[in-house]
Amino acid sequence: MNELIELNHPAAEHEPGDQVTDDNVKDAACQAVRGAAERLVQDADALNVASAEARQAGLEVRTEDLSRAVVIAWQAGVDLPVIAAEAGLDITTVERWIAVHGLGRGGTPLAD
Asked: Cβ distance 82 to 30 under 8 Å?
């Protein structure tokens, strides 16, 4: 899955004429990670009353959303400890999710 995942999140929107800087992109990426983590926690509570199949499917979708946000943040240049803190995850999990996508900074494929 060596593809660039684009930062396409409402937090990344800006008005015409706004200066888009690396810090703006990193902030938006962090907001996306934080939002995905919050949705996972919120939905987990609601899914506890669902059937086992619905719960599993819902958690998989929210976990994938968080994983994508983590990879986007990495591609935007956010440091691993910051991503882990925003996601509420340990650094090892963040590193695994990034490795699964096989991407380095800026979407460049990792060397084999």
From this structure: yes
On whether the CB atoms of residues 44 and 37 are closer than 8 A, the answer is: no
Rounded to whole angstroms, the Cα distance separating 27 from 15 reads 16
Question: What single string gives the DSSP state of each residue in 33-96?
Answer: HHHHHHHHHHHHHHHTTS-HHHHHHHHHHHHHHHHHHHHHHHHTT--HHHHHHHHT--HHHHHH
Q: Which residues of the chain have pLDDT under 50?
A: 1-14, 16-20
Give the rounded distance of the alpha carbon of 20 from its chain centre. 20
Residue 105: its pLDDT value, please? 67
Q: What are the phi and psi torsion angles at 90 (to 5°)?
A: -85, 160
Confidence at residue 100, expressed as pLDDT on a 0 to 100 scale: 87
Record the pTM: 0.71
Report the alpha-carbon distance of residue 50 to residue 21 in Å, rounded. Answer: 43
pLDDT of 5: 40
Helix (H) / strand (E) element for 25: namely helix 22-47
